[in-house]
Please model this.
Amino acid sequence: MTEQELAFTQDELDEIERIKAKFPTNKAATLRVLWVAQEKYGHVKPEVQNLVADTLDLPRSHVHGVASFYTQYYKEETGTYVLDVCTCLSCQVCGGYDILHHLEDELGIKAGETTEDGMFTIQEVECLGACGYAPMLQVTNGVYANNLTKEKVDKLIENLRKGKKPEFESMVMRQNEKRKKELSQ
Amino acid sequence: MVEDWKSYEPLIIPDIPNLHRIEVYEEHDGYRAFRRILDNPEEWSRTNVTNEVKAANIRGRGGAGFNAGLKWSFMPQPDERPRYLACNGDESEPGTFKDRNIFEFNPHLFIEGALIAAYAMSVDVIYVYIRGEYIDWVRIFEKAVEEAYEKGYLGEDILGTGIDIEMYTTYGAGAYICGEETGMLESLEGKRGYPRIKPPFPAQKGLWGNPTTINNIETLANVPLVINNGADWYQSIGAEDHNGPVLYGISGHVNKPGVYEYPAGMPVEDLIYDVAGGIRGNKELKALIPGGTSTPVLRADQLEGVSMDSNSLRDAGSMMGTAGMVVLDEDTDMVDLLWRITHFFHHESCGQCTPCREGTGWLEKVLLKIKNGEGEIKDLDLLLDMTTQMEGRTICALADAAAWPVRHTINRFRDEFEERCKKSVHAVA
Amino acid sequence: MPEVFIDNERYEFEGDYMALQFILDLGKEVPFFCYHPSMSIPANCRQCMVKAGQYIKDEETGEYELDENGERKIRWFPKMQTSCALKLSDGMVIQTQETSEEAERAQKDTLEFLLINHPLDCPICDQAGECPLQIQTYKYGPEGSRFEVKKVHKPKRVQLGPRVTLDAERCINCTRCVRFAEEISETNQLTIVSRGDKNYPMTAPSETFDDPYSLNTVDICPVGALTSTDFRFKARVWEMNQTPSIDITNGKGCNIDLWTRDNEVLRITPRHNPEVNDYWMPDEGREAFEQFNKNRVSRPSITLDENNQSNTSWNNAVETFAEILEAHDPDQLAVFGTPHASVEENYAFNKFFNLLGASNARFTPHIIPGYGDDFLITDDQAPNTNGCRLINLEETDDTGIQSAVTSAKVVIILSDDLVGRGVLSADDLADRYTISLATNQSDTTEASDLVIPITCVAEHAASYVNIDGRIQRSFPAKETKYTNRRLNLEMSEGRLDRYGTNFDNWVNEEHKIDCLPVWEFLNHLGERIGLEFQYDHSRAIFDEMSDRIDPLKGISYERMDEELGVQLPIEQQEVTQA
Model:
């Protein structure tokens, strides 16, 4: 992919304008426009970072510095699904590493690697804010899969291979019984 | 300490289906506090609102526990500069998973609280910064903001009062340091999340150099309760000097982990054994990290009679933090646990200032050595030495947060660490 | 007046002051890395820690509160403070490493951290000898290392741009380079990439650090992370002499230091002058060192036949010059001064031909419109345009030079490549006897019949008037065949100069150019033709000028040295292409 071929569509440019309108400076839109770019290309490799910089009329070095600071931006191409397995604190003590190692065994790759078919990338990540539902993982910066077991992981992989992503799971407080009941109906 | 907690009905996240929808929220007295203020501007002048909140002593729920109203009063008199309220929904302290419940189940309570804060401080724009991993909650919350705009609670000429307040939601992209208030400001400005030196404080020079106040999501969700029921009522909930409802996030080796809402000052043992259903597999309790990963771990024997409020936890040798309680059972390997904590801080140090950038990595590497059975007793003292070299020497508190668990875990579980070193390949008699 | 107490001494201060700058201004020391007086204060290296507090004043009486021993009570700040970002306030008490063990400990601790991932490769590092990290480690650092685990590895030998090389492992993340590109040169070409201990400065992936001021980052880098690609591995700093001088590559007159070893200029760095260039200079000015060493005119030369020049003796050069002058009337001479040479050279040169009866020498400014920026690069390509005006040389445009040549039989050019810069063509000079007094080989010397080698700015003391009308001067930095460091007290003498002999392999006589200051040559020439003309030193020329030229009244080399140059009361003239 050469830099010339990269461009935002009119719809994306409109979205970028809406993002810019939230802030008094273009610079403030950097993180959000990197997200727009990552959604489009699946990564923010250097040429995509430059597209973001040029679109926002910012120094390319600035966008490069920002992209490299935040871990959710993929600076390299990844598999179709990125499985971010939390192994931090609560997940560590509740079997996060077992889940990670199980995934590694199942997919035949190590954390940080991508399967040969380009389907899965596994990453070991820091706390994702789902400590009460440990162990857990996040699929490609999106949905959370909570309270994992090896069986649940196998099912998840199977579904993902079929293109079926898990659905958002509402974790209702145990004190909210009425809500729970409503949700289960 | 709170004793009659069993009859407590949640206030921040009450058991009302579909409360996240604005009609339902309004049906249950939603936006009443805000309307009351707008309808009675004399009784509820900006100063009076601030004073009421100050009197209620809402301790910041983001970890520092600072009186929210007092924080508001640091804002300078309005001048020609724009004024901002930056709401911290970064929630990335390991063990903490509470604010996402507010976004999901009662977003309007928070929006209303933020509006009242904005009114009290003459704020023009509210930014809500949510961690990037919470993208699903961002989408849920954005819908609530849209509803509030449609109903005229946000935007220009709010409810016909001539007051203009905008609320913009935005999100990060993976960096714990953006939960530090000035790191978050830098991130909001589209930069690397390097915390700023203070002074100047955000109230003087915050977002784009303008007066800015930063509050946690849960903190602001408490504000409408105070306006509706008064500071005295609020003071009556919870412990002395630490009041109001608290979202306790309980995780680790308990039977019923999750977020629970109870008054501040809950007995730790009640929370673990009663609320959270006790230790999994009927094991013994070994230790508790009471308020997120940076709060010092307490041994089971240090927990007797301790309650979840700042005074009691301070006396016990720890801190309230975010009330994200991580319960650890008898089988927990404290060396492994501490190594993983230092791994976290090493990964998340922004790298701006020396003691943290270098110290967090060194801590992790030495602990890895010990964990791998290659440690020596002198490494433990080196680690303790490093913690004093890091603490209080950096721009923000990340170095402190990295140092405390190391110091306290080693000191409180010294035997376990020494044991591991004695078995090491380098062990000397 | 508000007062502060530093290491138990009382000082008064006025206005806004940060503690570190105040302490440095007192001539005291606190170690630091990231702080730079001309840039924003990030307080990120955490090296300049001091213990600080406040004497407690009774609010009602305004008196200091005393303890039981009659000593003033102090409220110490709970944490150690970075003095760079600590604003002085009335009654503040500061203890540096000299009086506080805590401050000393904090500084030592920070140094230990800075060194753990640093490669400690001083023996092969260019920065060694002038490295703040090395110096401060010796002064304030720990004695050994307790770091027994693996260091972080980062990119090394990265060609960041055409002139700057990065070793990211040596970097201590002070961000001076990034701030320079943001705040001073404003090219924004640098950023810190990655996070935590993997941080290092970098350009955007598709970009190169070709900032026209890029080498300033090498100067301010407090470690050997950024080094000059050209100067790398050429010399140890302690082997070199450092001589103050003036940048002669443009009209700004940046204050510089010439770094010489064995009479070769090896590098040029900026010298602080808040009135002219602050701490900075353009990269172009640094590249000038080559012209002081290479392509020099050494020994006079004379054209024997059509195209062949041959070296000749000084006697023969003087004789030939004299014969030409004797064979022509003054009005047959076209005499050209130059903005590329100093005031003294132009003055002596012009005076010589005035004495012969010629009218004032002409000169044409050397301007490239649009070449400059709003900072230190100017449209004016010469260092002394205003100096030529000051001594009333006749300013003319290129056409004026051409017509003067056309109507002359003899053309005498002082140090100006009029052919190379397109004012004249070699053909214009073909039918005239052309004499060049020059420092370097050029198209003009090639087209000349007689070439007299003269000293360059690195070899003489002389003054230059910059575009803003400031007169500043140079010092001799390298010896010629006829000067001697040990006899000329204005010259600095390094270890290698002092102890080197012709038998040492680091001494090379070839580096000494066979040339004379223009006035000395004219002394010889004057003597030969019986002209009353004698200047022993440029100082004598300057003294005469300061007597005769109003704006120079009361100005001397000493004043220029003390005041880092003197602003002349001359009207600032827009230097334009005539």
Notes: Chain C has a mean pLDDT of 95. The first helix of chain C runs from residue 19 to 25. The radius of gyration of chain C is 28 Å. The domain at 117-228 of chain C is CATH 3.30.70.20 (Alpha-Beta Plaits).
